[in-house]
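INFO  loader      accepted 1 record
INFO  loader      residues=202
INFO  predictor   begin
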Amino acid sequence: MLLFAGIVPAAQAAPRAPLIWAFGDSLSAGYGLPPAQGFTAQLQAALRRAGVAATVRNGGVAGDTAAQARARLRWGLRGLGATPDLVIVELGANDMLRGLPVAQARANLDAILIELRNRRIPVLLAGMRAAPNLGPDYVRAFDGMYPALARAHRTPLYPFFLDGVAANPRLLQPDGLHPNARGVTIIVARLLPSVRRALSTG
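INFO  predictor   done
INFO  writer      dumping C-alpha cells
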C-alpha cells in the first residue's frame, strides 16, 4: 500500500458482534440450572463454536405469561443498551398451563410482535404445544396460534421449543416440565440452524 504525504489510513472499526435477546419465560431463563448450563449460555457457546461471535442475553422470567412479558417488553429492550439483531420470542407455555384463553395469549403475542416489527427488530418465534388433557379444541387453537402469528407477521417460526425433549424424563428436571442441562443441549442443537438463518436474513 502506498502512503502519500505521511497520511496513514484510519483503522476500520471492527463490526459489532450480533446481539440476540431470548425473550421468554422459565424455559429461556434456564430455570433450575446453573447459569452456564441454561439456554442462553449454551446457545451463545454453540454459536461461537459455529463461528458466529454473537452475544446472547437472557430476557426470560420464570412464570411469565404472554401478558406479563408484553408489559415488560419496552423496558427490557431499553435495559439491553443496544438494539438487538434478533429477538427469540419464547412465550405461551404459562398461558397454556394455566388454561388461559388462547385468544388472550394470541393478542398479547401479536402485540409483542407488532412492537418488535415497528422497531425493525428481526424475530424468531418459538412455538409451544398444548397438553393433550386440555381437550382437542384448546389444543387445536393453541397449537395453531404460532403458525398463524408467524404468517401474519412474516416472521420465521421454530415450531416447538421443546422438540426432542418434551416427555423424555432423561432430559427433564424432576418437575417433568423444564429441561435439564442435557435437554437444553438438544434444544440448542435443534434450534441453532434457525437462529443462524434468522441472523443472516434479519
